[in-house]
């Protein structure tokens, strides 16, 4: 077994022992979707939403929320904890490089977000009759870019905060604005036009719009795909530049 594979298996065992993190990533987005779906008015078509129902718009939001939970609330405390406890420093003296540990954590949190996305889509379809994404390739690409931007943001937060406690505080502070930008409080499509335009400059607002476009059957606008891609590149560069192994 190669060293990166061994690290991945070990981190998977530890990851599965964290039911609290798994709940917020895998269960919470779908639970929120189910609660919203129980509101009668959310299941009625709305002329203001182009004949769509509010619950139709909240499936992509729930999918995106899973990536935000993984990137901001679950990943940063793990990385910061490893650094603060000296695990990364000790690994630097072994054949296993710290980068293997970081890659394993990112892969596991990304996989958990994908499971959550599938669960939200299935719940929307089976419980509330929400149509499956009509343009799967565009939907998958938008989801991938949204997830990468969330994980990149979490990595950047970990890089610039000195302690695990500071990382938790910073992640929580950033988390609530990102929920708004993703449309958790109000779906992006239901926002005033000016606010939609502003939100579209941020990765989660653009990703939410891209997911909705793909769900409706169209290829997402290149601008909505380009925004999270650009933010991902910028945040990864910042994380690499300022990340401290010890």
Poorly predicted runs of 5 or more residues? none
The major pleated sheet works out as: none
Tell the overall outline: elongated
The average pLDDT is 87
Number of strands: 0
Q: What percentage of residues falls in helices of 4 or more residues?
A: over 70%
The number of helical runs is 10
Order of helices and strands: HHHHHHHHHH
N- to C-terminal distance: 27 Å
Structural class by sheet pairing and helices: mainly alpha
Strand content is: under 5%
Radius of gyration: 18 Å
GO molecular function: ABC-type transporter activity
Keywords: Antibiotic resistance, Cell membrane, Membrane, Transmembrane, Transmembrane helix, Transport
Subcellular location: Cell membrane; Membrane
Protein name: Transport permease protein
In short:
The chain is mostly helical and 246 residues long. It has helices at 3-16, 19-37, 54-84, 87-91, 98-128, 136-160, 164-182, 193-199, 203-216, 222-242. One of its GO terms (molecular function) is ABC-type transporter activity.
SSE arrangement:
Blueprint (H helix, E strand, L loop, with lengths): L2 H14 L2 H19 L16 H31 L2 H5 L6 H31 L7 H25 L3 H19 L10 H7 L3 H14 L5 H21 L4
Descriptive report:
Keywords: Antibiotic resistance, Cell membrane, Membrane, Transmembrane, Transmembrane helix, Transport. The model has no long low-confidence stretch (mean pLDDT 87). The protein is mostly helical and 246 residues long. Helix 3 packs across helix 9 and helix 6 packs antiparallel against helix 9. It is elongated, with a radius of gyration of 18 Å. 44% of the residues are buried. Helix content is 76%, strand content 0%. It has one domain. The chain has ten helices and no strands.
């Amino acid at each position: 077994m190669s060293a990166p594979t061994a690290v991945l298996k070990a981190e998977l065992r530890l990851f599965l022992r964290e039911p609290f993190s798994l709940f917020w990533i895998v269960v919470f987005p779908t639970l929120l979707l189910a609660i919203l779906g129980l509101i009668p008015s959310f299941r009625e078509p709305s002329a203001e939403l182009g004949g769509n129902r509010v619950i139709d718009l909240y499936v992509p939001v729930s999918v995106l929320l899973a990536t935000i939970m993984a990137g901001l609330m679950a990943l940063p405390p793990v990385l910061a904890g490893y650094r603060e406890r000296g695990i990364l420093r000790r690994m630097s003296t072994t054949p296993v490089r710290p980068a293997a540990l970081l890659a394993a954590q990112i892969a596991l949190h990304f996989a958990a977000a994908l499971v959550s996305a599938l669960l939200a889509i299935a719940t929307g379809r089976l419980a509330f009759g929400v149509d499956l994404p009509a343009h799967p390739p565009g939907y998958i690409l938008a989801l991938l870019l949204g997830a990468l931007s969330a994980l990149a943001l979490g990595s950047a937060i970990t890089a610039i905060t000195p302690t695990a406690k500071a990382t938790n505080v910073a992640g929580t502070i950033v988390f609530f604005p990102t929920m708004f930008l993703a449309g958790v409080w109000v779906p992006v499509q239901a926002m005033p036009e000016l606010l939609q335009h502003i939100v579209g400059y941020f990765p989660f607002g653009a990703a939410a719009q891209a997911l909705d476009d793909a769900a409706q059957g169209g290829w997402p606008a290149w601008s909505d795909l380009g925004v999270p891609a650009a933010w991902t590149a910028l945040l990864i560069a910042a994380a690499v530049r300022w990340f401290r192994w010890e």
